[in-house]
Each structure stands twice: as structure tokens, then as C-alpha cells.
Automatic annotation (TrEMBL):
This is Sigma-70 family RNA polymerase sigma factor. InterPro entries: ECF_Sigma-70_Domain, NTF2-like_dom_sf, RNA_pol_sigma-70_dom, RNA_pol_sigma70_r2, RNA_pol_sigma70_r4_t2, RNA_pol_sigma_r2, RNA_pol_sigma_r3/r4-like, SnoaL-like. Residues 199-276 form the SnoaL-like domain. SUPFAM superfamilies: NTF2-like, Sigma2 domain of RNA polymerase sigma factors, Sigma3 and sigma4 domains of RNA polymerase sigma factors.
Length: 318
């Protein structure tokens, strides 16, 4: 290692740029995950963002970036948008309904870890139900919606990030907001109510109490089961309607392992159920409630083992 002042400056510059990136990593993870819906792709984009950031700093070590936060967000968002084409091709060959990879957090009274995926849950979280709707937007519409509606960026700021005019960003924002509102009006269920409904739902489903399920489910309830073609019992399309969903749940209950263990965790910010069998993740279940009645209008079941591989009984993820 060089003892020259230049060598010292380079070392300190690398350390400083690393510290800046790490300081914004949680924000970058949250934004990119909300754009892509998978942890692996998000981590790849963050790695690409770090490489772009470190290359910029190494090329111009004496040049100060006035707003590193804005610079890093712009890099991350554009890397994420560049990855969307490959993700779309994967989705076209995906077997059955596709659901976002669940971010499983700890219970409310535990301390969060330093991991970006967990810490993201303590800030801006987009529910599983809304993530599903966001999949129907164009990549640019989704980017504008996430940046404006979730993270509070102004249209002018988003225009700079996406290299678009402010007027075009406003048009994208209007279309995205109207699309989302038509498919899922913005509603945040009371967390305590959602927790209680989830626990009652699990008890009724596992106990085969069809009467209780019928009272709990909205008439037009929809159930999505994401098995990724790797779980034989997973359906190939969403199931719609109270009676059909009840029959499906009764079938699942009859085939469930005998040694299941239920952990109630926050998934994408919502109180949810994580099911384990012999300490291995078996399913993640998220309930979406109807505003007027608190009946269950959406059930999101992630049982694809690839999407559960990092989930641990204690709430930590690898």
C-alpha cells in the first residue's frame, strides 16, 4: 500500500464513498424492491448501483456530488428499469399466479435487524395487495407511482430521475393513480383488526370450520396461490368467490402437514401468518380486508419454496 498523500486520499475517498452508499442502502432497497417485487433482483440492482457509484467516485475523486441521495436514487431506479425486460420474460413463463417475494419482518415488539430488507419494513412498506396491482402498470407508471405516492418525491424531482419532462411525469402519475384506484382503492386496515382476522382465519381454515370461513370471507373474495410450478397442489389461476375459496381451503387443510407451526409476523408491513413445517417455511399467508366490513377480500398465499428459502422461524432472513 502506498504511503503517499495521494494513496491516503484514495483510501479515504473510497471509505467515504462507501459510507455514503451504506447510509442510503435502506432507502435504495425499499425503492427498488417496490419496483421489482423480488429480493434477489433488488440485491443485484443495488450491486450494480454500488459499482456505478464507486466507478464515478474513482474516476473523479476530487469532484463532489452536490446531492448524493438524488444521484444514487437515479442510478438505482434506472438500473431497476433496465432489468424490467428480463423480469417480464421470466414472468411470461411463470407457472400459475405470480406474487411478490414476501418481506417477512419480526413481531412488533422485537428490535429490527440491520438488514436492509427488514429495515425497509419499518419505513415505507407497500402491501402485498398493492404490489399485485402495481404489476399491471407499465414500468414508467410504476416508477412514478412508487416515487410519488410512496416516497413523496415531487414531479419535478421524478422528472430528473427518469430524464422526462415534468408534464410527462404528471401524466404518468395521473394514469397510474387512476389505474390503482380503479383496482384497489387506497385503504389501510387497522393492524390490530387485521391481526385478529388473520388469526381467526387460520384457526377456521386449519380446523375445517366452513361456517366461520363463510362469515369471514367477502362474497367476491379472491385467493392467489403462488407455487411457481413447484408445488403440485397450487392452482394455475386465482380462485374467485366465497364458496370456491372455502372448498379450496378445505382441500388444503386436508393435505397440510401434521407438524405445522404458525408464526404471526409482519409481511410487507401487514400482520400476516407464516407457516412452518419442521422449522422449514411452508407458506406465507397475507389477508387483504374490505373497508366497510373487515371481511377478507383477498388471500395471498406464497408457497413457492424459492420465495420462502430465506424465511426463518425467529423472523430473521439470510
Amino acid at each position: 500500500m502506498s504511503d503517499s498523500p495521494a494513496g491516503d486520499y484514495t483510501a479515504s475517498s473510497v471509505e467515504a464513498s462507501t459510507e455514503v452508499f451504506v447510509g442510503y442502502r435502506e432507502l435504495l432497497f425499499s425503492i427498488v424492491y417496490n419496483l421489482l417485487g423480488t429480493v434477489a433482483d433488488t440485491e443485484d440492482v443495488l450491486q450494480e448501483t454500488w459499482l456505478s457509484w464507486s466507478a464515478k467516485k474513482s474516476r473523479s475523486p476530487h469532484q463532489e456530488i452536490d446531492n448524493p441521495r438524488a444521484y444514487l436514487v437515479r442510478i438505482a431506479v434506472n438500473h431497476a428499469l433496465g432489468r424490467k425486460a428480463a423480469i417480464k420474460r421470466r414472468r411470461e413463463t411463470y407457472v400459475g399466479p405470480w406474487l411478490p417475494e414476501p418481506l417477512v419482518g419480526r413481531v412488533a415488539d422485537e428490535q429490527p435487524t440491520a438488514d436492509a430488507a427488514h429495515r425497509a419494513l419499518q419505513g415505507e412498506s407497500v402491501s402485498m395487495a398493492l404490489m399485485v396491482v402495481l404489476e399491471t402498470l407499465s414500468p414508467l407508471e410504476r416508477a412514478v407511482f412508487v416515487l410519488h405516492e410512496v416516497f413523496g418525491y415531487e414531479h419535478a424531482e421524478i422528472a430528473g430521475i427518469l430524464d422526462r419532462t415534468s408534464s410527462s411525469v404528471r401524466q404518468l402519475a395521473h394514469r397510474a393513480r387512476a389505474h390503482v384506484q380503479a383496482r384497489r382503492p387506497r385503504y389501510q386496515a387497522d393492524p390490530q383488526v387485521q391481526q385478529q382476522v388473520t388469526e381467526r382465519f387460520i384457526d377456521a381454515a386449519l380446523g375445517g370450520d366452513l361456517d366461520a370461513l363463510m362469515q369471514m370471507l367477502a362474497p367476491d373474495v379472491t385467493m392467489w396461490t403462488d407455487g411457481g410450478g413447484k408445488v403440485r397442489t397450487a392452482g394455475l389461476r386465482p380462485v374467485i368467490g366465497r364458496e370456491k375459496v372455502c372448498r379450496l381451503l378445505a382441500g388444503y387443510a386436508g393435505r397440510a402437514p401434521q407438524d405445522i407451526d404458525i408464526h404471526y409476523r409482519h409481511v410487507n408491513g401487514d400482520p400476516s401468518a407464516v407457516v412452518f413445517s419442521e422449522d422449514s417455511p411452508y407458506a406465507v399467508l397475507v389477508m387483504d380486508l374490505q373497508p366497510e366490513t373487515d371481511q377478507v377480500r383477498g388471500i395471498y398465499a406464497v408457497i413457492n419454496p424459492d420465495k420462502l428459502s430465506s424465511v426463518r422461524p425467529g423472523g430473521e432472513e439470510d
